[in-house]
Amino acid sequence: MRIIVDAFGGDNAPLEILKGCYDASKELGIDIVLAGNSEIIRKTASENNIDISAMEILEASEVITMEDEPTSVVKAKADSSMAVGLKALADGKADAFASAGNSGAVVVGATMIVKRIKGVKRVAFAPVMPKNKGFFMLADSGANVECRPEMINQFATMASCYVNKVMNIDKPRVGLANVGTEDHKGGPFQHECFALLKENKDINFIGNIEARDFPDDAADVIVCDGFTGNIITKLYEGVAMTLMGKIKGLFMKNLKTKLAAALILKDFKVLKKELDYNEYGGAPILGASKPVFKIHGSAKASTVKSALRLTKAYVESGIIDEIAEAVK
Amino acid sequence: MRIIVDAFGGDNAPLEILKGCYDASKELGIDIVLAGNSEIIRKTASENNIDISAMEILEASEVITMEDEPTSVVKAKADSSMAVGLKALADGKADAFASAGNSGAVVVGATMIVKRIKGVKRVAFAPVMPKNKGFFMLADSGANVECRPEMINQFATMASCYVNKVMNIDKPRVGLANVGTEDHKGGPFQHECFALLKENKDINFIGNIEARDFPDDAADVIVCDGFTGNIITKLYEGVAMTLMGKIKGLFMKNLKTKLAAALILKDFKVLKKELDYNEYGGAPILGASKPVFKIHGSAKASTVKSALRLTKAYVESGIIDEIAEAVK
């Protein structure tokens, strides 16, 4: 299997990307194609003793930054590592593409360069989020600020396929993000979504879910429009980070609390890891006609490796054919 | 000052409501009028040695439960403690009304019985939420699932008045909840809201705010439609509760962690209190023509007292006249 990786996407590129790719290629038995400036890639690898001799390089002179417009991937920066990588995937030169770069650009590139599966109205940005036990998938988390109910229904089908086949959850429970759990809750948009989801035979729809219950194992897949999904993802991270920061500050307060910290440090680290959504690597772009995976922007080598493991599973799952069949 | 309190609203009514009213009447020098079944009120007070001799009772035979439809306050349960209390406020028999009961019913009652300030398009349910330092006010948090941009603009004016006059924040920073911080972020709805907020001379608008930054002192007032606001409030609570639960579990794991817990217990309790939005008592119903305050549903006596302190400040602030002037 060949996976193209954007060597210049993310906060820690290219070094951590190269490290992660090396680890993944060894552990997962995949062939890595690095997209980016070959000179910088070779120099970084050599300076850090990373053996990239088994990896192919796909030359690309530019880099899409976090500040660039998402559309730059098809216009101003068509020679960027991201654009060149996506183009090569579209041309059949590999089985998948992964990038830790600008999320908006990955979404636009997946739609415009790789193209959607026939029948899919919009791609969904679908991160895997930690909860009390395990995780849930949120679709859409920001690819589409405005959605029509039939898009939400497709997000549910696509995310169910992914969670079932890639994350190995049997009959994933699908919930609609809403202001209450009763069937009639929400406005006209939620009512229309509810009606479509209820009739959808490809999913296990369990009804409306309140945001209070998202972290508490309420569902395996939660669907919503991209505006709401963006608020959910970012607030999740913000509240958890603020709280963990406060607790850290509390542990550092004085000798007594520092002693407490020392006693609990190991368990605390395990908890932090459980809650860290870097652990799940990132988010597939559901609905693209070939596997495109967005690695978390702040990914270090281990997260890059996790993401490539999921990308490999995404390819092997065959869910793109399954989604194509379901949306027909 | 006379404040009518719904003696039968909330998870811990009537006992904790009576206790909180007694404490508030002593500490704040306010006259309390209890709305509800006088027989049960007197029995509960006498069994628990709560001196309610200084409090008037407004007879009401029924109770609105959490399961009742919000509109029951004007229809099926017009003789409930909530409806009777709101009616007495509307009739000028007191200066304010507070209830820990069904939020939807409080919103409907504030709109239909007490009525809106002339010119106010919709009332906002505006809870005070804890953040890294202090708090922020969220408007609207669920009174209006669907909003027009001019409503969002009014929420900003009303919440600014409240935060300035009742919570004593000078020139409160107002932010629009959005998917990114740049001016052009979001869809047509956010663009229209942004344009109105930018032109609003009664507020200190600081632009778009990402959900990641809400808990990190990004603004003093955050405005959004009620669907988004409901998701924010409930997710905030859900993530914080799940995390605190996990940490509690971690402390109870073994002897070593229990020792750590003992060392840090006091500081941890302080943190929990800082993060507990019960501390801020609840949410004013902004835009009602007289002060209506929703006490947190799970309020115990101390929260009821905090809420009545804020209700008193709400009356004294004169912001209803100020809002009436601003929306003219």
Task: Furnish the topology, listing elements before pairings.
The structure is a homodimer of 328-residue chains.
Chain A: E1 2-6, H1 15-28, E2 31-36, H2 38-47, E3 56-59, H3 81-90, E4 96-99, H4 103-114, E5 124-125, E6 128-130, E7 135-139, H5 149-165, E8 173-178, H6 188-199, E9 204-210, E10 221-223, H7 226-251, H8 255-275, E11 282-286, E12 292-295, H9 301-317, H10 319-327
Parallel strand pairs in A: 1-2, 1-4, 2-3, 4-12, 7-10, 8-9, 8-10
Antiparallel strand pairs in A: 5-11, 6-7, 11-12
Order of strands in the sheet with the most strands of chain A?
3-2-1-4-12-11-5
Summarize the amount of helix of chain A as a percent range.
40-55%
Oligomer: homodimer
Please give the most extensive interface between any two protein chains, plus how many residues each contributes: A-B, 54 and 54 residues
Rg of chain A to the nearest angstrom? 20 Å
Give the DSSP E fraction of chain A (strand runs of 2 or more residues). Answer: 15-25%
List segments of chain A where confidence is low: pLDDT < 50 over at least 5 consecutive residues: none
Span between N and C termini of chain A? 28 Å
Q: What is the helix/strand order of chain A?
A: EHEHEHEHEEEHEHEEHHEEHH
Class derived from helix and strand content of chain A: alpha/beta
Q: What key phrases describe this protein's structure?
A:
homodimer, alpha/beta, 7-stranded mixed sheet, 5-stranded mixed sheet, 10 helices, globular
